[in-house]
Write a structure and sequence with these properties.
The chain is an alpha+beta fold. The chain has 21 helices and 24 strands.
Length: 680
């Protein structure tokens, strides 16, 4: 309820809207925020924020970004708003650069106004920006409707006081006022209830049935405290006591109310003391169902949590890759120098295997963080699963019966073959571990046509559906809430890394898909993976022959990690290259300034202190535009791009790498510029 709490201290009316725009501006980090109410072709400002409370005059709707936001529901512009709306002179006068707006609609879907946040500098709005602003707009809409209902109620009170002096005409006015009041209340989207101080319902509007599933006639005479969650009864009674103590002050709180179907719904309720009004004689409660808003906020928090864990995993993997590079490199170099059967051969093999397992662990971390370097091709999902079936049967053992089912006309998909195989492998291993005494494992490949947002945030279209179902011990809802988090495991210590399902989650999301889980204790588990279909022709596996390339030329190695730099020097020197070293960008530039022609290729790390690899490359282009440059990085490919590489065709050697891979990458780069290579 982070968004709801931003306006919790504001009571109502102008204070509420001022708190809303302030909180919206702070939430998005913008200079301005505004709530405008539509009045024909004019937008009348209800509240305006400009680094503080400010006043703003009405402004014309046509030709403004507010008009487009009102028409299409939401409008997001990262930069150059003035150029997009030249007729809106106020934008140019204010110096607006970025804009995000959302229509404020009432219960009938009519656009009542626009909530906007604006900034004097460009902003790359996150994907969740529209969702967050929609929640703010929902709060503004509810407040507008509440104010209308409250205003109608005040009008009725004024009419009632006037009846004492004009009995004949007052009777007609009372009837008209009651009709207007009843029309507003009975057509409002939010429930309105009148109750006694003991909680007995005196009146319930028709919207109550939509909210809790009970008709008004069934609620009248019932004690409303009986519908509340047991933990909310005492706080609700306390609020009623506060209302009695201060008749002029409305009080608001959040309550959980049981629906007729047995579920709990969340409501924000505002109570007004109208015991002194003979026409009402009770406490008036305006209730707004915020169940959906709370669910959206929980989804947003979960998405932010997973993203934060992903960034952490990616950072750990970067540092780990440097260590693994050194371990693997020296192991391979020593192994090449030892005679066959040497007594140190087996210990070295054990070290090498441990390093490979460490590299695999790094890959799983990157998979979870959705930053693993995937190489998608068009695949036949049935061919992939069928090819793995014999190995999967050996993996699960004879006490688990596997049934594989392929539907007709399953489309191809675009994915990384190794990634897809790892997804299936991890799901099968997870199912096997859930059935220690044997059971049944069903694997199915099917197709599905989905509407937009039918499964998570997936767009509409054709999808390949991979299902893995087991008859194991199942999972509780509490366990399911954490199964895709890295290092979360229900196994005993030492039995599993807790990265299996988080790796699946990362690969599936990075491939543009989604994964869902259905399970209950004692009822097994069913994992369903949705991956976008593709119209292309499936690729076929081809063999690759590795030949160690000889080396000729001079290489400038730029690496801030001394252990990695030393390893690279020894590898390249052993392959026949002459090597010069620099620990940072300025040192490399100093060497090149002495004799830029003495270097045939530059091998540089991407992330370094003082000067990054891409920044160094730009400076080198001034000295020698044709000089080949090879980047190496412990960061994944997508992260490398964000660190400053402008083009995806720039060669990048991913850590950890083997001596052969390093030598081959340098040789391949020199082969592209044969005129530059010469004897060392």
């Amino acid at each position: 309820m982070a968004i709801a709490s931003g306006t919790a201290t504001a009571t109502s009316g102008e204070a509420f809207f001022q708190a809303l725009v302030e909180h919206a501006a702070r939430a998005f980090g913008t200079r301005w925020s505004c709530v405008g109410v539509l009045d024909g072709d004019t937008v009348r400002t209800r509240a305006f924020w400009d680094h503080g409370r400010a006043d703003a005059p009405p402004y014309p709707l046509p030709g403004s970004p507010c008009e487009q936001a009102a028409r299409q529901g939401c409008l997001r512009i990262d930069a150059e708003v003035v150029g997009a709306f030249p007729e809106d002179l106020a934008l140019a006068e204010m110096g607006v650069e970025a804009y995000l707006g959302c229509a404020i609609t009432d219960g009938a879907g009519r656009v009542r106004g626009v909530l906007s946040v604006l900034h004097d500098a460009a902003i790359a709005w996150p994907d969740e920006s529209e969702l967050i602003l929609t929640i703010f707009a929902a709060r503004a809409s509810a407040e507008l409707q509440r104010l209308e209902a409250e205003q109608s109620l005040h009008e009725r009170e004024r009419e009632a006081r006037r009846l004492a002096h004009e009995r004949t005409s007052a009777l007609i006015e009372v009837q008209r006022s009651e009709a207007r009041f009843r029309s507003v209340i009975e057509n409002a989207s939010d429930p309105v209830i009148i109750m006694t101080v003991d909680g007995v319902c005196l009146y319930a509007s028709p919207a109550t049935e939509r909210a809790v599933g009970l008709p008004p006639a069934q609620l009248v005479g019932a004690n409303l405290f009986g519908l509340l969650h047991p933990e909310d009864v005492d706080p609700a009674r306390s609020v009623v006591a506060d209302v009695l103590a201060d008749a002029d002050q409305p009080f608001t709180m959040q309550l959980r109310v049981r629906h007729r179907d047995g579920s709990w719904r969340d409501f924000v309720c505002t109570a007004h003391n109208r015991l002194g009004d003979p026409a009402i004689g009770g406490v008036v409660v305006n209730a707004r169902d915020v169940t959906t808003e709370i669910a959206l906020e929980q989804q947003l928090r979960q998405a932010q949590k997973m993203e934060g864990l992903g960034r952490l995993a990616g950072g750990v993997a970067h540092d780990f890759n440097n260590l693994v590079t050194v371990i693997q490199g020296y192991c391979e170099m020593i192994t090449e120098e030892l005679a066959i059967g040497h007594r140190h051969q087996e210990p070295l093999n054990q070290i090498q295997r441990a390093a490979e397992r460490a590299a695999s662990l790094t890959g799983q971390l990157l998979a979870f963080s959705r930053k693993q370097v995937l190489r998608p091709v068009v695949l036949d999902p049935i061919e992939v699963v069928a090819g793995m079936e014999p190995m999967l049967r050996r993996l699960v053992g004879e006490d688990i019966r596997i049934a594989v089912d392929f539907a007709m006309d399953v489309p191809a998909l675009r994915a990384d073959r190794a990634g897809l195989e790892q997804v299936l492998m991890n799901l099968v291993v997870n199912a096997r571990d859930a059935m220690p005494r044997g059971g049944r494992l069903d694997i199915a490949v099917d197709r599905a046509t989905l509407e937009a947002d039918a499964v998570g945030d997936l767009p509409g279209g054709e999808f390949v559906v991979l299902t893995v179902r087991d008859t194991g011990h199942g999972m509780s809802p509490e366990v399911q809430a954490h199964i895709f988090e890295p290092f979360f495991t229900t196994r005993e210590p030492g039995k599993g890394t807790g990265l299996g399902l988080s790796t699946v989650y990362g690969i599936v999301r990075q491939s543009g898909g989604a994964i869902a889980c259905q399970s209950a204790p004692g009822q097994g588990a069913c994992f369903t993976v949705y991956l976008p279909g593709s119209a292309g022709s499936p690729a076929r596996l081809e063999g690759v022959t590795r030949v160690a390339p000889p080396g000729r030329g001079r290489v400038l190695v730029v690496e801030d990690d001394a252990s990695v730099r030393s390893l690279v020097r020894r590898i390249l020197h052993g392959r026949g290259y002459a090597v010069v070293e620099a620990s940072d960008g300025p040192g490399a530039l100093e060497l090149l300034s002495l004799d830029a022609r003495a270097v045939d290729v530059v091998l540089t790390d991407v992330v370094m202190p003082e000067m990054s690899g891409p920044a160094l490359a730009q400076r080198i282009r001034v000295l020698r535009p044709e000089l080949p440059i090879l980047f190496m990085s412990g960061y994944p490919g997508e992260e490398v791009m964000r660190k400053g590489l402008a083009h995806r065709d720039v060669p990048v050697l991913q850590k950890p790498f083997t001596p052969h891979e390093l030598a081959e990458a340098v040789r391949r780069l020199l082969d592209r510029e044969p005129a530059l290579a010469r004897g060392a």
